[in-house]
Amino acid sequence: MTATLYVCTTCRAGETLDEDAPRPGALLHAALTQEGAPDDVEIVGVSCLSACSQGAAVALSEPGKWTYVYGRMTHENAPDILAGAAAYAASKDGLVPWRERPVVFRKQSLARVPPFNMPSEALT
Q: For the whole prediction, is pTM greater than 0.70?
């Protein structure tokens, strides 16, 4: 399977910008695609991840795995985001050991969402 790295391309990251100014989310998306996706990772731009007060935001998801949402990212974080995405893609369930995650993933996690097919008794 392939993990998906979603990037909010419309994110203003809390900045007041002119209408035609480049959005921090779009700059992040451009930096990530320029670096290139790791094996088993697809980079997908989306118009909103609803993390406006914590933007620029990215999310990692793959069927059967936990989904993560990370915020306060910049284009300078692109190498660390891609390293974290590679570790996520290589994991069995999306749970990368804490010390193996890039620092930006350790400190800037906004949400962790269980797989849709996870039995409720496994959540406790």
A: yes
